[in-house]
């Protein structure tokens, strides 16, 4: 079985698709966002969307644009199962993962109204209050 990578906007359904594939076909999910959240915890930073973006930018500037995908690849190589990389963000991430892990990329998306409702249910403090703001 091929390794996979899912990409798409917030609330598009990436995590749900990854969970479905994992359960049905036995893939291990590796969340790129969890790596950024771990870096934020290390910095003592609250994991809001804005803070996570800042942490990711800081680490990319300090250690290179490929830092997060390289950490993800280490985890993937340690897996005894095929993997799904949940949350491929940049073209650099996709290019490196395709080369190193031979992943197939899947784009997952949904209409803005559906994405807004999904994200609203997550109850994150920094989330827009209306669809128009979103």
What does this structure look like?
The chain has 134 residues and is α/β, with parallel strands linked by helices. 54% of the residues lie in helices and 12% in strands. The protein contains 6 helices and 4 strands. A 4-stranded parallel β-sheet has the order 2-3-1-4, with helices on both faces. The radius of gyration is 15 Å and the shape is globular. The model has no long low-confidence stretch (mean pLDDT 89).
Looking at the structure, what is the overall shape?
globular
Task: Kindly provide the radius of gyration, computed on alpha-carbon positions and rounded to a whole number of angstroms.
Answer: 15 Å
What is the SS-derived class? alpha/beta
Provide the succession of SSEs: EHEHHHEHEH
The portion of residues assigned to helices is: 40-55%
Mean pLDDT: 89
Question: How do the strands of the widest beta sheet line up side by side?
Answer: 2-3-1-4
Number of distinct helices:
6
Largest sheet, strands/sense/barrel:
4 strands, parallel
Spans with pLDDT under 50 lasting ≥5 residues? none
Distance between the termini: 37 Å
Q: How many β-strand stretches?
A: 4
> Strand portion, in percent?
5-15%
């Amino acid at each position: 079985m091929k390794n996979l990578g899912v990409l798409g906007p917030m609330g598009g359904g990436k995590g749900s698709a990854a969970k479905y594939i994992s359960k049905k076909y036995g893939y291990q999910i590796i969340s790129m966002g969890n790596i950024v959240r771990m870096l934020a915890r290390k910095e003592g930073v609250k994991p809001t969307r804005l803070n996570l973006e800042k942490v990711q930018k800081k680490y990319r500037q300090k250690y290179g644009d490929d830092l997060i995908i390289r950490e993800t690849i280490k985890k993937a190589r340690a897996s005894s199962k095929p993997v799904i990389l949940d949350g491929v963000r940049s073209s650099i991430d996709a290019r490196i993962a395709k080369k190193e892990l031979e992943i197939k990329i899947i784009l997952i998306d949904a209409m803005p109204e559906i994405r807004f409702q999904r994200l609203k249910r997550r109850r994150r403090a920094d989330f827009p209050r209306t669809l128009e703001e979103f």
